[in-house]
Specification:
Layout (H helix, E strand, L loop, with lengths): L1 E9 L4 H15 L3 E9 L4 H5 L4 E4 L10 H8 L3 E4 L16 E5 L27 H5 L4 E3 L7 E3 L2 H10 L5 E4 L2 H9 L7 E3 L19 E5 L8 H10 L5 E5 L5 H10 L6 E5 L7 H6 L2 E4 L9 H8 L4 E4 L14 E4 L4 H13 L1 H17 L3 H13 L4
Parallel strand pairs: 1-2, 1-4, 2-3, 4-5, 5-8, 8-9, 10-11, 10-13, 11-12, 13-14, 14-15
Antiparallel strand pairs: 6-7
Helix pairs in contact: 7-11, 10-12
């Protein structure tokens, strides 16, 4: 079997790129030939990333080179083209009518013109299809400091056309029930959409007690939707000793560090910057819990499974796909969206009750090794890519 992955980035960057790397490593072990068409090399070990594939080729449609996707498809002759993040679906003319096309919908870009699926004026999660409400929420306006007026305008009609063009794709895969319902609500046929949680490729660390130190860990991009500002607000409310480590980078880092200092947390909260995935084990080992303070409705929240593999409980907001893997008082604690006081209380509970943190972390590990086992994920993915999944 020959699979051509298509993604805008080549190299480690976020959860999308990590999922692709894990998937390709697993497929390689099963004798599947994997190729990559990409647009941009990241600065995070792109050579090691490229070595996972039989070939990684820059692609015109993604802004990477003058070679078209159609030419790459013609040369490789894949059994399936597996689309991931890309600015625009190139259509059947760019791929060919005889090749199976599957797309993993990692985020809300396809259905939400704002991309983050919450209203700008009140930060409440949007539970409606794309349409007239997008105009009321000014979703056609984006901040852009490089332009004279400080904004740029988005064509909402073009967004609707792009969404409709994806209905010609053979199979759309999503990570959670929330994402399935979002696509169906926006006109996609239920039979076209399959739920396949993007699980992580790692072995559990084995049952272990929660870390003795009251240490909070965050791992992820530092962008507004990830809600690290909400985590900092919650940490400022804590009445017990703690330390926190924030692993990751992004365009919000400078503002978050300033917020930390303004809240008087600079001696207890450390920002490390980006850390390679294979070096994260020591951070989990030192942590009592993982914080997932997302503001946007996470399409799934793959980082939570990583914490579960390390037998660490998770504290997260009840948004998007997070409840698909985070069950309240089973493998962590769920808090209602934007409730930083409630989030602080949940953090405080696990920071002061090591036995509870150990119990929840152990149950998380059990679920990761059974319900979210990587071999089972690969079996189901191969079925979807080959066209045998219903």
């Amino acid at each position: 079997m020959r699979i051509l992955f298509v993604n805008e980035k080549m190299g480690w960057f976020g959860g999308v790129e990590q999922n692709i790397a894990d998937t390709v490593a697993g497929l390689n072990e099963r004798g599947v030939d994997c190729y990559l068409a990409y647009g941009e090399r990241t600065n995070r070990e792109p050579e090691r990333y490229a070595s996972l594939f039989k070939r990684a080729a820059p692609c015109k449609e993604l802004g990477g080179a003058d070679v078209s996707l159609r030419a790459i498809v013609s040369e490789i002759a894949p059994d399936c083209v597996y689309l991931h993040k890309m600015p625009q679906y190139p259509g059947r003319d760019a791929i060919g009518t005889s090749t199976r096309v599957v797309r993993m919908v990692h985020d809300h870009d396809l259905c939400c013109p704002r991309r983050h699926k919450y209203y700008a004026h009140n930060q409440h999660v949007c539970e409606n299809p794309a349409g007239w409400r997008c105009w009321l929420d000014l979703a056609f306006v984006d901040r852009d400091r490089s332009r004279p007026m400080g904004v740029r305008f988005r064509n909402l009609f073009a967004h609707q056309a792009e969404m409709k063009s994806n209905r010609s794709i053979d199979r759309l895969l999503v990570g959670s029930r929330f994402m399935h319902d979002e696509l169906v609500m926006n006109g996609f046929a239920p039979a076209q959409v399959g739920i396949l949680p993007p699980v992580v490729r790692m072995k559990g660390s084995g049952p272990s007690e929660a870390a003795e130190a009251p240490h909070v860990l965050y791992v992820g991009q530092l962008i507004r939707g990830k809600g690290v500002d909400q985590l900092l607000e919650s940490l400022a409310r804590l009445r017990v000793p703690f330390r926190a480590t924030i692993v990751g980078d992004g365009n919000a880092r400078h503002g978050l560090e300033a917020q930390r200092d303004a809240l008087g947390l600079n001696d207890r909260v450390e920002f490390t910057g980006w850390v390679p995935n294979h070096e994260l084990g020591k951070f989990y080992g030192n942590a009592r819990l993982l914080a997932v303070p997302a503001r946007w409705p996470e399409p799934f929240g793959m980082i939570g499974l990583e914490a579960m593999h390390h037998a660490r409980p998770v504290v997260g907001f009840r948004v998007g796909g997070i409840p698909d893997w985070l069950e309240h008082e089973r493998n962590g604690l769920l808090v209602e969206p934007r409730d930083t006081a409630g989030y602080a209380a949940a953090l405080e509970l696990l920071l002061t009750d090591r036995a509870l943190a150990t119990r929840l972390g152990s149950e998380g590990l059990r679920r990761a090794e059974t319900e979210f086992a990587f071999p089972r994920y690969l079996d189901r993915l191969i079925d979807h890519l080959g066209g045998s999944a219903s």
